[in-house]
Write a structure and sequence with these properties.
This protein is of the alpha/beta class and 229 residues long. The chain has 8 helices and 7 strands; from the N terminus they run βαβαβαβαβαβααβα.
Length: 229
């Protein structure tokens, strides 16, 4: 089994080297992993730092000439993914890559069709009340719309068989990646398993990019895919 770890990046010069190092240090029980970093038109020193990985066979660096957003970066990375399983890893170190094996194992064992790392079943540090409330609302919306209990719809850690993720024909460009894949998977009645994870939120001052508008867009995306097609 091979795992593809897609890392969408935009202006993460402070953390990009560390997140790549931590992902490469992950040991899977039965298989290996590749790291696919998609630089979404960074304007800081991120591109220069990523250039240093040109000779690393386990790291692929892809570049957008213009900023498209997280969803667009994930779609670009998915095109190149060679793994049987794909997971998304943010570049800001709010999520701990050492937890990846525990998220992948249930999928490979056949206990679920896709796996989410749930912050609200695990440990959450430093999350602002507004963000916590928005996450709760999104999870409740997904639960009510698709009749399937979801505790953390917006988690970064989403683990899918690569073939399933590609079959969704994703349209997302920004942060609507999360509700789009959630809606499309649950609408197919795929089995979801949520695993507790540890989450350490960073502040807006430290570079957190998601805003209130993204929450409204996420709810609209859930509604749109629930009642379309």
């Amino acid at each position: 089994m091979k795992l593809s770890v897609i890392v969408p990046v935009h202006n993460e010069e402070e953390t990009i080297d560390e997140v790549i190092a931590q992902v490469l240090a992950v040991e899977l029980d039965d298989g290996d992993l590749e790291v696919i970093v998609v630089d979404d038109a960074s304007t800081d020193s991120t591109p220069r730092k990523l250039a240093a990985y040109g000779d690393n066979p386990r790291v692929t660096v892809l570049t957008h000439e213009r900023n498209r957003g997280k969803g667009g970066a994930i779609r670009t990375g998915l095109e190149k993914a060679a793994g049987d399983v794909t997971v998304i890893q943010d570049a800001d170190l709010e999520y701990d890559p050492s937890e990846l094996p525990g998220l992948v194992a249930p999928l490979v064992a056949g206990r679920a069709d896709f796996v989410y790392g749930s912050r609200f079943r695990g440990t959450v540090e430093n999350m602002r009340f507004e963000n916590r409330l928005a996450n709760r609302i999104l999870s409740l919306a997904a639960t009510l719309l698709f009749f399937r209990r979801v505790t953390d719809e917006a988690t970064c850690y989403k683990v899918f068989w690569t073939k399933d993720l590609r079959s969704f024909d994703l349209k997302c460009e920004r942060f609507e990646f999360c509700p789009e894949v959630t809606a499309k998977a649950l609408k197919r009645h795929m089995r979801l398993l949520e695993i507790p994870i540890t989450y350490r939120a960073r502040t807006v001052e430290a570079g957190k990019k998601i805003r209130a508008f993204d929450g409204l867009e996420a709810i609209w995306t859930l509604l749109r895919y629930r009642f379309s097609g």
